[in-house]
Design goal:
Two copies of one chain form a homodimer. With 503 residues, chain A is an alpha/beta fold. Helices cover 43% and strands 12% of the residues of chain A. Chain A has a domain at 122-371: 3-Layer(aba) Sandwich (Aspartate Aminotransferase, domain 2), CATH 3.40.640. The longest helix of chain A has 36 residues, at 375-410. Chains A, B: This is Tryptophan decarboxylase.
C-alpha cells in the first residue's frame, strides 16, 4: 500500500488511518492466533455433532445485511466463527465422519498450503513462477513412480502430469483434447457424430462434463452394470455398443473407466476395456479419484493393470492422499494434444522462455489461466512421510474397514450388499432376509436418518442395481479403531430402537 | 488413522512406527514455525530478485528422481525451500512487482484461507456444509451491495452470486447456461449457428472458453478496436456484426464485455453494448476481473453503469481485493438457467434439504462437484478492513499510478500510449518522437529486458493497435511510493545506458 498524499483532500477526509493490508508483524501475531484456533478445533472436533443440525437460512438472520463501513476486531471475528460458523459446519474432519468419501488431511499438506498461499505466485507460464512449474513436474513424476505408471506418463519419459482442481476439470481437458483431435480430421460440423462412453456407475460429473464440451446428449452412452459383475463396466457390452455406433456411422470418441466408483468403489477392468477402446481409437481416461491413492501399495496396484494402454489417468490426492482440497492429479500420454486444444498465446504473456526454450506453460494444460503453487502440498506430503508411511496410511484405513466388515458380518440382521474392495463398506439392514425392495429401502432410510440425527456419526447412502444401501466410508484423518467400534455400537443401538418401534 | 493390528504380519513388518498424519500438538508446533517462515519471507521479500533468474530445468537436477521411502525432517524441508524453491520464484508479492496485474493479499485473507483449509469442508451441496453455502450467499450479497449492483443480482433480490476459481470457469458456466437455453429452443443440432462476440481486447481465455463449450471457431466474432476509442468495443460495430449474422441465419448468443482489459484496462461501454445485446436477446457477460474492485469507490462506479441490463458479471478479488488466489465472484441474474444447465442429481448426494427445502446447492453453479469454503476469505477481508479501508486501498494504488504517470510525463523521451484509467500505465520510450513501429518495438523490448535483468523490478509489455508498449501495473500489496520512485529511477538509468550504447 502506498502512503497517503496529504495534498489530496479526498484522502485526508478518509475516516480511517493510512491502511496496510499486510504488515509482517501484525500478520505474524494474527496467524499464530489462527494456528492455535485451528489446533484447538482439531483437539475438540470430536465434541461437535458431525452433521450440522441447523435449519436452512440460519446464518442470514445472524449476520448484518451489508459489510461494515469501519473495521472490526480480529477477536470479534474469531468469536463469531466459533458462535455462528462452527454450528453450521458439517465436520468433514470429524473422526466420526463416514459419509461420501473422506477428505483426508495432514500437517504436511497444511504447511504446504500455507506456503502456497504465502507465496501467492501465479504460475500460468514457466517464467511467471519457474519453481512452481518445475516442482509440479517433479512431484507428478514422483507420484507416477509410486503408482508404477509407465514412462509414457512421465516428464522423464514422453508424457507428463498436471495438477487440476477437480476431476471434472481434468476430464474436461482430456475430453477436449480428444474431441479436437478427431474434429481436426472429420470437421467441426460433424460434432454431432461424436460418441462418449461411461457406465451407470461413472461419476455424475461425466455426463455434465460431456455436455459442457458440446457432446450431443443423445450421444452419451451409459453402459448398464450388474450386481453379478460387482457393478463394473462390461468390456463386451462396451464393444457391442461401439460396434453399433460405428454401424450407425457415428464416431466413438472417449471412454471414462473408473477405478473405485463413487457409490460402491466398483473397479472397471481397465486392461480389457482398453483393449476394446484401443481397437476403435477411442481415448480412454481412467478416473481413479478415490482408489488411485491405494495403488501406491503393491497389493492394490493390480487395479491399474492395463494403464499402459490408456490415454489419461486422474487421481485426487484430496480424497485419500492426505492433501486437503482441492487437488486432482492428471497424467496424459500425449500432452501435445492437450496443449494444442487448450493453448493461448496473448501478446502480454509472450516471453523468450516460452518461445525459445520450449518450457512447460501449465496454462495450456488447464481450463483457466491463473494457477496456484499446488505442488508444494504434494511435495511436503511425500517428503514428510515417505512412501512407507503413506502405504501404512492406506493399509490402516483398509484395516479399519475390514474390522467394520467383521462387525456387520457378525450380526445376522445385516447383509453386505457389495463386496468390499477398499475402505468403503456397502451394507443394509435386512432383519428378516426379505426381498421387498421398497420395504427395505424405507427401513434403511429410517435407520440412516435415526443414526445421523444423533450427530454422533455421519453416514450416507446410495442406490445401485435397485438396491438402497448404507455406505460406511472409513478414512477421516482422525478416525481410530475406537470410532469405528463406537459407530457400530450406535448403528446397533439405532437398529434396536427402530425394530422395536416397528413391532 | 487407525491403530495398527499387531496380528497382521504385513503391518508389523512396516519399517515405520504407527503413523498419525495430523497430531494436533505436532500440527500446532509446525504451523507456528511456518507462520514465522512466511512472516520472515515478507520482511525480506524486497531483497530477492523480483523475476527469478534461474534457467529452465534448474530444479530437476537438484531434486532426487523419486520420493523418499522414509520420512524427512521438517527442518530439512524448510531449508530446501529456502535453498531450492525461493531462488526459482518470481516474487509476485515483491513491492517491486509491476508486471501483469498484481495479485493482492492481506492478513485477513490469509487467516480466512487458513481457516478454509483447516475446516476442509467440501460444500458441494447445502447439507454437506450449511455454513459454507450460507456464508457464500451472504458475502456475495455484501459485495454486490458495495458495488451497487441491482437487486436482480442478489439473493436478497431475484438473482445470486457464487465463488469460482477463475474467470474462465465463470464465463464457461454462463456461456453454457446461455447456450443450453437457446439450444433448448432451436435444437442441439443447430449448435453450429450459435455466434459469440468479444473484442480484440477481450482476454485470451474467451476464445478458449468458447471452443471448450463447443462454439464453432468460425462463429467466434472478434470486434476490432481502435486507439481513437481507447481500445474499447464499439457498440455500432457490434450491431453491424450481429445484424450481418442474423441476416446469415445465424443465432447471436453471447457477448463478453470487459471493464478493464488485460492489456491496457480499456473499458467497454456496458450500457451501450447492453442496449444492442438486449435487442437481439444476446446474453451479456461483463468481465471486470481487475477493475471491478475499483467500482466499490463512487468515483469509479460509473464504469458499471448499465449493469442492470446485463445477464452476468464477474470480478476476481484475487486481483485487486486483497484476496490471494484463487477467487472469482460471479453474479447472475437468472440462476435457474445456470442450474438447469449444470445440475446433477446422483443418488448418493440426494437428501431431504435439497429436495424439500429448496436450498442452494452450489455444485449446480459450477463445473466441478467438490468446492472449498472460499467465502471465509472475503468475509474476513470485508469485516477486518471495512468498506472505508477497502476504498482507501484502491485509491492509494491509483494515487501511486498517478504519481508514476507524472514521472513519465515529465521526461520528454517517453510517451504515454493509452490514457490511464486505473492503476496501470501503458507507455513507451520514444526519444526522437519517431513513428517507426519496428524500431520503437526493438528499442522498448531492449529497455524492458535491461530493466528486468537487474532483478530490481519486474514489468511486462503488451502490443495493442500495432504499438509495442511497456506496462507499469501498480498495486502489489507491499508497494509504497518509494518503490514506484525507485522503479522510475531504474527505468531512467536503463534508458540512459541503452541510449548511450545506441549512439
Amino acid at each position: 500500500m502506498g502512503s497517503i498524499d496529504a495534498n489530496n483532500g479526498a484522502y485526508t477526509a478518509s475516516p480511517v488511518a493510512p491502511f496496510k493490508s499486510l504488515d509482517p508483524e501484525d500478520f505474524r501475531k494474527q496467524a499464530h492466533r489462527m494456528v492455535d484456533f485451528i489446533a484447538d478445533y482439531y483437539k475438540n472436533i470430536e465434541n461437535y455433532p458431525v452433521l450440522s443440525q441447523v435449519e436452512p437460512g440460519y446464518l442470514r438472520s445472524k449476520l448484518p445485511e451489508t459489510a461494515p463501513y469501519l473495521p472490526e476486531s480480529f477477536e470479534n471475528i474469531l468469536n463469531d466463527i466459533q458462535k455462528d460458523i462452527i454450528p453450521g459446519m458439517t465436520h468433514w474432519l470429524s473422526p466420526n465422519f463416514f459419509a461420501y468419501f473422506p477428505a483426508t488431511v495432514s500437517s504436511a499438506a497444511f504447511l504446504g498450503e500455507m506456503l502456497c498461499t504465502g507465496f501467492n505466485s501465479v504460475g500460468f507460464n514457466w517464467l511467471a513462477s519457474p519453481a512452481a512449474t518445475e516442482l509440479e513436474m517433479v512431484v507428478m513424476d514422483w507420484l507416477a513412480n509410486m503408482l508404477k505408471l509407465p514412462e509414457s506418463f512421465m516428464f522423464s519419459g514422453t508424457g507428463g502430469g498436471v495438477l487440476q482442481g477437480t476431476t471434472s476439470e481434468a476430464i474436461l481437458c482430456t475430453l477436449i483434447a480428444a474431441r479436437d483431435r478427431v474434429l481436426g480430421e472429420i470437421g467441426v460440423e460433424n460434432v454431432g457424430k461424436l460418441v462418449v462412453y461411461g457406465s451407470d456407475q461413472t461419476h455424475s460429473f461425466f455426463i455434465k462434463t460431456c455436455k459442457l464440451a458440446g457432446i450431443f446428449p443423445c450421444n452419451i452412452r451409459i453402459i448398464p452394470t450388474t450386481a453379478e459383475a460387482n457393478f463394473s463396466m462390461c468390456p463386451s457390452a462396451l464393444r457391442k455398443q461401439i460396434e453399433a455406433d460405428v454401424a450407425d456411422e457415428l464416431v466413438p470418441l472417449f471412454l471414462c473407466a473408473t477405478v473405485g466408483t463413487t457409490s460402491t468403489t466398483a473397479i472397471d477392468p481397465v486392461s480389457l476395456l482398453a483393449e476394446v477402446a484401443n481397437e476403435f481409437n477411442v481415448w480412454i481416461h481412467v478416473d481413479a479419484a478415490y482408489a488411485g491413492s491405494a495403488c501406491i501399495c503393491p497389493e492394490f496396484r493390480q487395479y491399474l493393470d492395463g494403464v499402459e494402454r490408456v490415454d489419461s489417468l486422474s487421481l485426487s490426492p484430496h480424497k485419500w492422499f492426505l492433501c486437503f482440497l482441492d487437488c486432482c492429479c492428471l497424467w496424459v500420454r500425449k500432452p501435445d494434444l492437450m496443449v494444442r486444444a487448450l493453448s493461448t498465446n496473448p501478446e502480454y504473456l509472450k516471453n523468450k522462455r516460452s518461445e525459445l526454450d520450449n518450457v512447460v506453460d501449465f496454462k495450456d494444460w488447464q481450463i483457466g489461466t491463473g494457477r496456484r503453487f499446488r505442488a508444494l502440498r504434494l511435495w511436503l506430503i511425500m517428503r514428510s512421510y515417505g512412501i512407507a508411511n503413506l502405504q501404512s496410511h492406506i493399509r490402516s484405513d483398509v484395516q479399519m474397514a475390514k474390522m467394520f466388515e467383521g462387525f456387520v458380518k457378525s450380526d445376522p440382521r445385516f447383509e453386505i450388499v457389495v463386496p468390499r474392495a477398499f475402505s468403503l463398506l456397502c451394507f443394509r439392514l435386512n432383519p428378516l432376509g426379505g426381498n421387498n425392495a421398497i420395504c427395505l429401502e424405507l427401513l434403511n432410510k429410517k435407520l440412516l436418518e435415526l443414526i445421523n440425527s444423533t450427530g454422533r456419526v455421519y453416514m450416507t447412502h446410495t442406490k445401485v442395481g435397485g438396491v438402497y444401501m448404507l455406505r460406511f466410508a472409513v478414512g477421516a484423518t482422525f478416525t481410530e479403531d475406537r470410532h469405528v467400534y463406537a459407530a457400530w455400537e450406535l448403528i446397533k443401538e439405532c437398529t434396536n430402537a427402530l425394530l422395536k418401534e416397528n413391532h
